[in-house]
Amino acid sequence: MTQERVHSHDVTQAAHDVLLERGVKISDIAEIVFEMQGPYNEKLKMEECIESVEKVLLKREMQHAILVAVELDRLAEQKKLSEPLQTLVETDEGLFGVDETIALGASLGYGSIAVTTFGHLDKNKIGIIEKLDTKRGGGIHTFLDDMVASIAANASSRLAHRLRDIEENLPKNERRIIEDE
Ligand SMILES: [Ca+2]
Asked: YutG/PgpA domain: which residues (predicted)?
């Protein structure tokens, strides 16, 4: 039996939709990127951070990880997970690290800046990550807070590499545009 393949446009749209539905706007993630990269580039503009987040969200691996993360959070909210997983996810049990593992895995393709930035954001939850982590406004976001950290970390890394390329006046075709690799 051959199943019809899901079109990548549908996956891209779904990843954007679930983030919004769960209260995460692209600008929320871009603000974190700005905070991470601003100290290294005084000319950094918010639009560049937004663009970088949008590019990261075009990556298929990211989209899949986002969909898995949000689905698990939603199932936990609906009490549809089996025990003991239901309680582990619902209570965001301290030693339950699968949420971080999935998010960290999604950052590996963006190099060491992404990995170290993810570690920083995991410890110092800022902006929307803190809001999700402290469950302000209700809902379970055990997986989503880490995914947002991963998206922000990847967008930060991508931006750092691009800005260096631009600083060095590399011609466009030589710029290491990570999403094209
Ligand atoms: Ca978490």
From this structure: 31-161
